[in-house]
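Side project, low priority. Logging it here so it doesn't get lost.
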Amino acid sequence: MNGMRRIAFAAAVMTGALLFAPRARGQSNVVDCVVAVVNNQVISLFDVRVVEAFGLFDAPATPDELGRRRFLLDKLIDQKVAIDLARGNAPVDEKKVDDERNRLLSSLGRDEAQRRLAEFGLDEDGLKPYCRERVLLDTIVADRFARSVAVSLQEIETYYVKAYAPAVAKRGEQARDLLEVLPEIEAEIKKAKIEGEVSLWIKNLRQQAEIEIRPDCLGK
C-alpha cells in the first residue's frame, strides 16, 4: 500500500469510527470494526450483520457463519463499486426505499423485526440507508442492462423444450402451451442474461477499484 493509499485508508477508518458509533436508539451491544474500505468508503462488521439479520441479500443457508458473512461482504463491495461509478447519475425513488424497508420488516413479522432493530440499536428509519443503496443498485442495473438485453424466439423455444417442459414433466404435471408461458420464459431468460452481464461488469469494476479487506474483523 503506497503512502497516499495509507492516508486514505486511515481517513476512511476514522470516518467509519464516527459513522458507526452510538445508534439512533442508544448504544448497541454489537461488536463493530472495519471489514473493508472500498474507494475510501467504509464497510463495517455492523453493516454486514445488519444486512444479514434483515435479509437484504439472499445469503446461502449454511452453518458456516464466516462463509456467510464473506458472501454478504462481497455483495456489499459489489454494490459499493457499482454505485460509486454511477453516483449522481441515478436518481433514488424514496417511495421504493420505503417499500423495501417495509418489505424487509414485514417478512420478519412485527415482533421479530422490533427485536432485531433493538439488538442493533436502530429504529425503522435506521434501515433506510441500507435499503437506499439496494434500490440504487437495482436502478443502475435496470438503466444499464434491462433495455439492452434482448431474447429471441429461438431462445424461448429452446428453453421451452430443454428446460421448461422436462421440469414440468418431472413434477408429474402437464406442460402448458408455449404461447401461454412465453412471457414467463422470456422474463426468465432475460433475467439470467442480465445477471451474467452484471456479474462480468462488477468483476471489471472490482479490478479497477481500491479495495482493502480485513478478514480478522469479519470473524469477530
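Brief comment: Strands lie at 34-38, 41-44, 211-213.
Revisit when time allows.
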